[in-house]
Specification:
One of its GO terms (biological process) is response to stress. InterPro entries: HTH_MarR-typ (IPR000835), MarR/SlyA-like (IPR039422), WH-like_DNA-bd_sf (IPR036388), WH_DNA-bd_sf (IPR036390). This is MarR family transcriptional regulator. The chain is mostly helical. The protein is built from 6 helices and 2 strands. It has one domain: Winged helix-like DNA-binding domain superfamily/Winged helix DNA-binding domain (Arc Repressor Mutant, subunit A), CATH 1.10.10. The longest helix is centred in the first third of the chain and has 26 residues. The radius of gyration is 17 Å and the shape is globular.
Length: 135
Protein backbone atom coordinates (compact mmCIF):
# COMPACT_ATOMS: atom_id res chain seq x y z
CA UNK A 1 0.00 0.00 0.00
CA UNK A 2 1.36 3.44 -0.86
CA UNK A 3 1.48 6.14 1.77
CA UNK A 4 -1.51 8.13 0.44
CA UNK A 5 -3.55 4.89 0.36
CA UNK A 6 -2.51 4.12 3.94
CA UNK A 7 -3.48 7.63 5.08
CA UNK A 8 -6.88 7.35 3.41
CA UNK A 9 -7.45 3.87 4.78
CA UNK A 10 -6.51 4.90 8.32
CA UNK A 11 -8.57 8.07 8.06
CA UNK A 12 -11.61 6.04 6.97
CA UNK A 13 -11.08 3.53 9.79
CA UNK A 14 -10.77 6.31 12.38
CA UNK A 15 -13.88 7.96 10.96
CA UNK A 16 -15.87 4.72 11.27
CA UNK A 17 -14.63 4.17 14.83
CA UNK A 18 -15.53 7.73 15.85
CA UNK A 19 -18.99 7.47 14.25
CA UNK A 20 -19.61 4.18 16.06
CA UNK A 21 -18.67 5.72 19.41
CA UNK A 22 -20.79 8.82 18.79
CA UNK A 23 -23.74 6.69 17.69
CA UNK A 24 -23.53 4.65 20.90
CA UNK A 25 -23.44 7.79 23.06
CA UNK A 26 -26.40 9.24 21.16
CA UNK A 27 -28.42 6.02 21.39
CA UNK A 28 -27.81 5.80 25.14
CA UNK A 29 -29.63 9.15 25.41
CA UNK A 30 -32.34 8.25 22.89
CA UNK A 31 -30.88 10.61 20.29
CA UNK A 32 -29.94 10.09 16.68
CA UNK A 33 -26.42 10.87 15.59
CA UNK A 34 -27.74 13.99 13.84
CA UNK A 35 -29.52 15.13 17.00
CA UNK A 36 -26.24 14.69 18.87
CA UNK A 37 -24.59 16.88 16.24
CA UNK A 38 -27.29 19.54 16.68
CA UNK A 39 -26.69 19.69 20.43
CA UNK A 40 -22.95 19.90 19.82
CA UNK A 41 -23.35 22.76 17.36
CA UNK A 42 -25.67 24.66 19.70
CA UNK A 43 -23.30 24.44 22.69
CA UNK A 44 -21.60 27.70 21.74
CA UNK A 45 -23.90 29.44 19.28
CA UNK A 46 -27.49 30.35 18.46
CA UNK A 47 -27.64 30.06 14.68
CA UNK A 48 -30.46 30.92 12.36
CA UNK A 49 -32.26 27.83 11.09
CA UNK A 50 -30.68 28.27 7.65
CA UNK A 51 -27.21 28.43 9.21
CA UNK A 52 -27.90 25.27 11.19
CA UNK A 53 -29.04 23.55 8.00
CA UNK A 54 -25.80 24.56 6.27
CA UNK A 55 -23.73 23.34 9.24
CA UNK A 56 -25.45 19.97 9.12
CA UNK A 57 -25.49 19.71 5.34
CA UNK A 58 -29.26 19.19 5.39
CA UNK A 59 -32.20 20.98 3.84
CA UNK A 60 -34.24 23.35 5.99
CA UNK A 61 -37.26 21.06 6.22
CA UNK A 62 -35.13 18.25 7.66
CA UNK A 63 -33.61 20.64 10.19
CA UNK A 64 -37.05 21.93 11.09
CA UNK A 65 -38.10 18.38 11.97
CA UNK A 66 -34.94 17.84 14.04
CA UNK A 67 -35.54 21.08 15.92
CA UNK A 68 -39.22 20.22 16.44
CA UNK A 69 -38.29 16.87 18.04
CA UNK A 70 -35.63 18.46 20.24
CA UNK A 71 -38.05 21.22 21.27
CA UNK A 72 -40.67 18.62 22.27
CA UNK A 73 -38.04 17.11 24.58
CA UNK A 74 -37.35 20.55 26.06
CA UNK A 75 -33.79 20.66 24.74
CA UNK A 76 -33.98 23.60 22.33
CA UNK A 77 -36.09 26.70 21.81
CA UNK A 78 -36.71 28.91 18.82
CA UNK A 79 -36.61 32.68 19.05
CA UNK A 80 -37.07 35.47 16.54
CA UNK A 81 -33.80 36.80 15.20
CA UNK A 82 -33.02 40.28 16.46
CA UNK A 83 -31.17 41.24 13.27
CA UNK A 84 -33.69 39.78 10.80
CA UNK A 85 -37.36 39.64 11.76
CA UNK A 86 -38.04 36.96 9.13
CA UNK A 87 -35.47 34.56 10.57
CA UNK A 88 -35.64 32.24 13.54
CA UNK A 89 -32.69 31.35 15.73
CA UNK A 90 -32.43 28.13 17.68
CA UNK A 91 -30.62 27.67 20.96
CA UNK A 92 -30.32 25.30 23.87
CA UNK A 93 -32.65 25.48 26.84
CA UNK A 94 -31.19 25.01 30.33
CA UNK A 95 -32.11 21.32 30.07
CA UNK A 96 -30.45 21.18 26.65
CA UNK A 97 -27.30 22.81 28.04
CA UNK A 98 -27.18 20.26 30.83
CA UNK A 99 -27.55 17.35 28.41
CA UNK A 100 -24.98 18.86 26.01
CA UNK A 101 -22.47 19.12 28.86
CA UNK A 102 -23.14 15.49 29.85
CA UNK A 103 -22.76 14.37 26.25
CA UNK A 104 -19.51 16.30 25.85
CA UNK A 105 -18.05 14.61 28.94
CA UNK A 106 -19.28 11.20 27.80
CA UNK A 107 -17.87 11.62 24.30
CA UNK A 108 -14.52 12.68 25.77
CA UNK A 109 -14.53 9.57 27.98
CA UNK A 110 -15.33 7.12 25.17
CA UNK A 111 -12.88 8.76 22.76
CA UNK A 112 -9.98 8.85 25.23
CA UNK A 113 -8.82 5.28 24.50
CA UNK A 114 -8.33 6.19 20.83
CA UNK A 115 -5.60 8.68 21.69
CA UNK A 116 -4.33 7.12 24.92
CA UNK A 117 -1.29 5.64 23.16
CA UNK A 118 -0.20 9.03 21.84
CA UNK A 119 2.16 11.36 23.66
CA UNK A 120 0.91 14.81 24.61
CA UNK A 121 2.97 16.21 21.72
CA UNK A 122 1.41 13.74 19.28
CA UNK A 123 -2.11 14.57 20.51
CA UNK A 124 -1.40 18.26 20.01
CA UNK A 125 0.02 17.58 16.55
CA UNK A 126 -2.99 15.42 15.67
CA UNK A 127 -5.34 18.22 16.76
CA UNK A 128 -3.51 20.71 14.59
CA UNK A 129 -3.50 18.40 11.57
CA UNK A 130 -7.19 17.56 11.94
CA UNK A 131 -7.96 21.26 12.24
CA UNK A 132 -6.10 21.92 9.00
CA UNK A 133 -8.03 19.17 7.28
CA UNK A 134 -11.32 20.72 8.34
CA UNK A 135 -10.37 24.28 7.43
Amino acid sequence: MTEPDEVLDNLAQVSFAVMAQLSQVAAAHELSLTQLRVLGILRDRTPKMAELATHLGLDRSSVSGLVDRAARRGLVAREASRDDGRSVRVGLTPEGRKLAAELTAEVARVMAPMTAGLSATDRTRLGVLLGRMLA
